[in-house]
Amino acid sequence: MQSREFSGKIQTVSFHYHMYGAHMGSLALEGLDGNSWITLWATTGQQHANHQAPWTREEVTLSGRTIQKIRFKGTTTNNPNGGQYRGDMAIDYVVVTTDKIAASDHWQKTESEDGLYYGPGNVGIGDKQPQADLSILGNLSRPLTGYVGVLKGSPYVTGVNTRFTRELRVGDSIRLGDKVFVVAAITSDIALTLNAAHPVGVFNATAYTDGDLLSVQTGAEVDALLVDKSGNVGVGAAKPAVKLDVAGGIRVGGETVCDAGRAGTIRYNDAGDEVEFCDGSAWSRVEGPKGDKGDKGDKGERGFQGVKGDTGPKGPKGDQGPIGATGATGAVG
Questions:
Q1: The domain 10-98 is classified under which CATH number: 3.30.70.3340, 3.40.50.720, 2.60.120.200, 3.20.20.70?
Q2: So where are the chain's domains?
Q3: What is the pLDDT at residue 250?
Q4: pTM over 0.85
Q5: Would you give the DSSP letter of residue 40?
């Protein structure tokens, strides 16, 4: 793998490598010094214990030398009898620093002129100065159906044979002439409102908007991941209607921290087997609102008669009662 010729003097070359396998060969970094390739760094044989072992970072200092290009050279083992194939070699994240000061055009466009820009470690699609490993900037290149017009100093756009309600949403970007606006309101298929007045106006023009920003499909051309022009993310959903639209189940992990910055976070509590949410200070069980009091139930059926209990113990002897009154005298015999 060989680089292009660098405009400045190479100061350092850093890279990560992984070499695992019993039949591993050698890996070398070479530099073009004048008309000859010279070895700048090399290692031979297995360097890592298994495929999961962390990669090794190497940095080679070249200050004071006149290296114009670099290349990596991987060599397999020399086995005339064959059969020695167990060896996986890889390199990644190669960074070359030079003594040249980065100018405003440090980010360069690919030769294909397809809107791809590249720089040290970063790639931009539509973005001339990507600040992330992959940066995508919508280019307002998808034409809308029909033709539009807007008066100078007015935010109101009218269309002929347009389909605003089907091709746009509030918040979408739209380009009219060489000016870019945001759709503030959509009244009908032929009328919409911009977020600001058009400074010069256009007549009988084609309007442009963004296409989807990112689309990942399976081999059967089924949508797996989509980021549309409004920033909505669809997982298995071809037309995400909200910020995150998932066509299927969602697995929620066991988050532990709940603070003001995580308010609104949901988690699954493995210990309690229930879904909880963070209110900014504590985790609470996810419950619906308290319902109205239910109707009184019907009277239940009369139960069976219970079993007769045992005879209780004999009570204590009561107190002697008072002497009764003297009875009447009987008849004379």
A1: 2.60.120.200
A2: 10-98, 104-137, 142-209, 214-246, 251-287
A3: 87
A4: no
A5: E
